Amino acid sequence: xxxxxxxxxxxxxxxxxxxxxxxxxxxxxxxxxxxxxxxxxxxxxxxxxxxxxxxxxxxxxxxxxxxxxxxxxxxxxxxxxxxxxxxxxxxxxxxxxxxxxxxxxxxxxxxxxxxxxxxxxxxxxxxxxxxxxxxxxxxxxxxxxxxxxxxxxxxxxxxxxxxxxxxxxxxxxxxxxxxxxxxxxxxxxxxxxxxxxxxxxxxxxxxxxxxxxxxxxxxxxxxxxxxxxxxxxxxxxxxxxxxxxxxxxxxxxxxxxxxxxxxxxxxxxxxxxxxxxxxxxxxxxxxxxxxxxxxxxxxxxxxxxxxxxxxxxxxxxxxxxxxxxxxxxxxxxxxxxxxxxxxxxxxxxxxxxxxxxxxxxxxxxxxxxxxxxxxxxxxxxxxxxxxxxxxxxxxxxxxxxxxxxxxxxxxxxxxxxxxxxxxxxxxxxxxxxxxxxxxxxxxxx
Amino acid sequence: xxxxxxxxxxxxxxxxxxxxxxxxxxxxxxxxxxxxxxxxxxxxxxxxxxxxxxxxxxxxxxxxxxxxxxxxxxxxxxxxxxxxxxxxxxxxxxxxxxxxxxxxxxxxxxxxxxxxxxxxxxxxxxxxxxxxxxxxxxxxxxxxxxxxxxxxxxxxxxxxxxxxxxxxxxxxxxxxxxxxxxxxxxxxxxxxxxxxxxxxxxxxxxxxxxxxxxxxxxxxxxxxxxxxxxxxxxxxxxxxxxxxxxxxxxxxxxxxxxxxxxxxxxxxxxxxxxxxxxxxxxxxxxxxxxxxxxxxxxxxxxxxxxxxxxxxxxxxxxxxxxxxxxxxxxxxxxxxxxxxxxxxxxxxxxxxxxxxxxxxxxxxxxxxxxxxxxxxxxxxxxxxxxxxxxxxxxxxxxxxxxxxxxxxxxxxxxxxxxxxxxxxxxxxxxxxxxxxxxxxxxxxxxxxxxxxxxxxxxxxxxxxxxxx
Lengths: 445, 468
What we know:
The complex is a heterodimer.
Chain A: H1 9-24, H2 39-46, E1 80-81, H3 88-98, E2 105-112, H4 114-117, H5 122-133, E3 139-141, E4 155-166, E5 182-196, E6 202-209, E7 215-220, E8 223-229, E9 236-243, E10 250-257, E11 259-268, E12 273-280, H6 286-291, H7 295-305, E13 309-313, H8 322-327, H9 329-343, E14 348-352, E15 359-361, E16 364-366, H10 369-384, E17 388-390, H11 392-396, H12 401-407, H13 422-444
Parallel strand pairs in A: 2-12, 2-13, 13-14, 14-17
Antiparallel strand pairs in A: 1-17, 3-11, 4-5, 5-10, 5-11, 6-9, 6-11, 7-8, 7-10, 15-16
Helix pairs in contact in A: 5-13, 7-9, 9-10
Chain B: H1 6-22, H2 26-44, H3 47-68, H4 73-94, H5 98-102, H6 112-127, H7 136-143, H8 157-160, H9 173-207, H10 214-244, H11 263-269, H12 272-282, H13 294-310, H14 314-341, H15 354-376, H16 380-396, H17 406-420, H18 423-435, H19 438-455
Helix pairs in contact in B: 1-2, 2-3, 2-7, 3-4, 3-6, 3-7, 4-6, 9-10, 9-17, 9-18, 9-19, 10-15, 10-16, 13-14, 14-15
């Protein structure tokens, strides 16, 4: 410090120039608007927050709203909008199941993205519905874990030696991704092991019958359950059933010769009840089903399931692309619904909106506007195609819920402001299950 | 108001011009500094306008009392009052009484950095290491100095107060440029490295470690070690730079800590102002320094208390104890070695082959890395889950990195290289910046703000140490 002047001129010049350049930033031409130092920032800097009562907002489901008049009137069920008859198949199945009619299984397929891969939300809905209507078995499970977090409540899964092709990432060239959106290719020696916590009466293996196909075998402990030769004249989806006896809870599948291609298992319990299959693919978007699922094999897989309800729960991964949502998304969603309708015309279809999503803006966790745009599209397309629509976003509490849930103790959502933590997933699962049951009960009256 | 917000720099810029215009007159200049200090506290909550000046005034007069009674029980009693006052202040802010919360009075700012700073004053005066500050205004301006209130560096009042006597001194252009460089460097560290690593893997993995593969968890642990370093050292750079704009020098808080060759060396490089505080005011005050066993035990006690300062919980306790045991073990090893060789132990001295030193650095770094798991995890169970995921990956020799994006890896690599690169490169960066014309300096800083907005569209995360 050896200058003699009072004001450090050079530093003052640098700070002054910075202030001027920075103030000009917002006026730079280009697609992106940058924030800079302006009068607003100076005003903000001078604002001293006065004490106010702490904002504690109870999160309650809010009544459903429809932005534009839909062709069909919604019933007054919170956040679940559906045209009369659109959930008829599902309700009728639930009724048979509720009456304990022999073999009355209500089968639900829930397609979703990353939370669904961890059986987050779906495991809660499954538990609640099975608690009320009975447990008809776990439903669908992939052959191995394509993602470290893949898992299903009440099941242990492990696998070795598989070449895994999820439809959203390393997709299979032929589009054969089975029911669950993931293809597994394995050579002799590849294994898959499943641990069940409860007895099931049957396991079905979903595979590809194809020319030159190899063999795989199933065993439980020392008991050989059966062997399958996957060789066939033409390539097509196929299904192999194996009965399971009491206590046979540890299943091992092993490729015994050649090369096989598998998609997954389904576990049945042989009694009436609900079966809720969680079909998540990490990073999934609705266009994945359109572009990466070969129509014929997907149709065969859906028809084999003969579901009573198909839930389409995509949207989080699309919710940051406003232009795509405005231009391509509506038609893509419509086409995917149409494919499901053509494959399983009997099934009810329900579009489930994504959860709220948060982005940080000025220190606040806020909802990106494109998410609202996407939900509006989903609501509109669901109404136009005769599907039910569950507004998860509104049921959670609407815009800003992600921020509120993040600040709750204990936290309900992850620090990425996208994924629910177990408590948050349970909350969403409960909201969805309650909405389904309220609708079912009001329809039954 | 954090140094990551534009508002902070609006205030700093206005203060810079106002301060250098009035600085020739000490009282108005100090009054200006104190006003701005209190304004920063008020931004956190009006209650601080009562708490902080009141506590500071008490300490000022307690120290005065100690100085007029060089010996005797009253002196010790006055020190005890200061200890109770400041530790009570930390506890009060951490565990806000329910009736205040119900009345809408929240205490978002922990006053622990203020309290540590205030205690340096009364403890130094008590020990006779410093004389009481004559000017009440200078004392208040020092102990409440705004750049240090959120997360330090903990600056001794005894070293800060004399700097207000600036007769004949002004800010050189080198120091001014260095201040701006440090602020820019801090913003770079915080936004482009620390927050990026946190948002793109670390936070998600530590939230739900069981959802990630062992390889991904391991990547997140490495990521966290650099996130923490760049977050905290970034803050320290901004604080030191802000103070330097007013001609005030704050102590360095970091010195490439992951280059440490042993644990004592690490603590001489990591959060230096805090480890010095623990050493000078806690470790040296514990009984039995000349006995055989107590110094080892005191190390563990000191570090355990240091751990608990971060939060009352088993994770911080384990973190502190692990470091305490590590330090005690190293001290024992040194004692045994000096007993065998007959040479005095010299932890500071660099000895051994290059390979040996590299190995020592890797060992120290990975010990610190291991302890960060407890520091970061939300519970002991969560920490064990992180360790188990990593252990399973090694046991099975299976490492999946699906969630480790190339961009995350690139930032982690940049973070590591920047840390392990020779320090001279950074110093030369500062020198180059100071030689650049003022307008270009401004342009460089504006470009940095643009880069931050492009890369970090989600805004700044709170500083990790601001909650302690």
